[in-house]
Design brief:
Radius of gyration of chain A: 18 Å
Largest interface: A-B, 34 and 34 residues
Oligomer: homodimer
Shape of chain A: globular
Number of strands of chain A: 13
Strand order of the largest sheet of chain A: 5-4-1-8-9-10-11-12-13
Largest sheet of chain A: 9 strands, mixed
Distance between the termini of chain A: 40 Å
């Protein structure tokens, strides 16, 4: 089994109340693929420029992922700069420099096209569609989306949503998308409108809600005393969720619940450090230990 | 077994995005006692003026509670007015008219003094202390507090906290009290500083967190599509929690977890209607049915 993940690979300049990093490894596919690699064979589909540092490539390879569909093109790697503020889940984008992404058109190899699972991480929905269309017969297709594309490419977002099994959105996005304030009602509307298996609403430090046809699940986030860098939390959540599902023989409601909890646990490691440092030496057994801790905090007694 | 609950009995004028009610039955003890009465014998300690409507008294009696320590004094019943806004957990207090509360000094009868459980609902900490001091040997003492008293009577709040087993605070209060942003760290500080059995942090629509010496529990709120009137949610949460614990042979971590979930479930009925209307005809089996629904949404699979 393997999961194909398309998204950005970037050099991030990030400022948070905990400090500042320049040109650190980032991008939705980098976060998601590192997270998924904890559970299964992950295959990254993306592009970097000729300036992409060898140390970043070496790090990604060291995490066991397949980089054969990571294109290298003449020009600059995608760069993003952002600032986070205290007590504020919103971030300010300081700059976006598309670089080689401006002309990217993903081409998948045979091994990628045959993958069982696809995660369309955050990236322009046109690129998400190009990847979906190349897949032969995936068992499960998941897509992440965000405000930006709802504003600038709404029709393409709708087409992506019609093509996938599972959609991930954060709470403000799903409210805006659906026009209703209740997260559950909003998730239901999203699920029904696009015939999804599940809509997953990410609530940051408050966890996530899964709305499926036959299941409704509330997952808390793993609680942290402090957050160093929120970048990539949602990408890692989606990557871990996709990777864990890929590793399982079937996608049942129970499997999906555990996948979402794995997502929040891996995301909690990500935000404890800048860039991908929280995943640098992380092992599956570290993840399982924290998952056990989380399960102990939420397990409910038997009841009548 | 029975629970003594001291707090306010009020006539509330409330404006919410869903409408407006004038001189409706309210007050922390009214909400908490109605909630506790679903589980055990509740005994209300409070005061009203001679203008307190007979229909409100009849309603409280109809819910099975003991009103023999509800004093009636010459003068006006406590009145409170507040406005709630969309997408905002904070409320604006429009007016407070203490009335007979200005001179209240609670005196408990023999049956109240011998109760096994005491819940000090939100009211001036001096009154909370007067009640604690009259109790003979309660098995469990719980106290609710709020910002107002942390500002105006901090020393008395500290004394109350030193005297009780369980403290309830909302998230903004416990952060302010402790000076730390992490709810868990704040709850731990509160618990340790006052030698509490448990600190319960209420997070409104995001549920509650229990920090005990030997347990940490995350409870979600029962999800609602919309809220009609948030007044009394925290009071009902505390009343249901106290009432359920009173009804149990012992207070174990598992019992406490279930008590907190009962608290969120009863609070969810309260906020679906104005004033106490959500509890008017509510039965224990309605509550159990919703609890089962909530348990189904949060139950986690077995894991290695």
């Amino acid at each position: 089994m393997s999961v194909v993940i398309v998204g950005s690979v970037a050099l991030d300049t990030v400022v948070t109340p905990a400090g500042r990093r320049e040109e650190a490894l980032g991008g939705s596919a980098a976060y998601a693929c590192c997270a998924a690699s904890l559970f299964t064979q992950a295959r990254l589909v993306g592009i970097v420029g000729e300036d992409f540092p060898q140390e970043h490539r070496a790090f990604l390879e060291s995490r066991g992922m397949d980089l054969s569909s990571l294109a290298v093109a003449p020009g600059r790697t995608f760069r993003w700069g952002g600032t986070y503020f205290d007590d504020d889940r919103e971030r300010r984008t300081d700059f976006t420099d598309l670089g080689v992404f401006a002309e990217f058109s993903p081409v998948l190899g045979a091994v990628q096209r045959q993958a069982e699972t696809v995660f369309l991480a955050n990236i322009h929905p046109r690129l998400q569609l190009q990847v979906v269309e190349q897949m032969e017969s995936p068992r499960l297709t998941l897509a992440d989306t965000m405000n930006l594309w709802l504003d600038t490419a709404r029709e393409e977002v709708m087409t992506v949503l019609d093509r996938v099994d599972v959609a991930l959105m954060n709470d403000s996005e799903v409210r805006r998308y659906s026009g209703v304030r209740s997260i559950i009602a909003a998730g239901r509307r999203l699920r029904e409108r696009h015939g999804l298996l599940s809509a997953v609403v990410k609530k940051g430090e408050h966890g996530a809600v899964v709305v499926s046809a036959d299941d409704l699940f509330f997952a808390p986030a793993y609680p942290l005393d402090s957050v160093t860098d929120p970048t990539g939390a949602g990408d890692a959540f989606g990557g871990a969720l996709s990777g864990y599902l890929d590793s399982q023989p079937a996608v049942s409601p129970a499997t999906f619940r555990l996948a979402v909890l794995y997502g929040t646990v891996v995301a909690s490691f990500v935000v404890q450090a800048f860039s991908l440092d929280g995943l640098r030496t992380l092992t599956r057994s570290d993840v399982d230990a924290r998952l056990r801790e989380l399960l102990a905090m939420i397990r409910v007694p038997e009841f009548g």
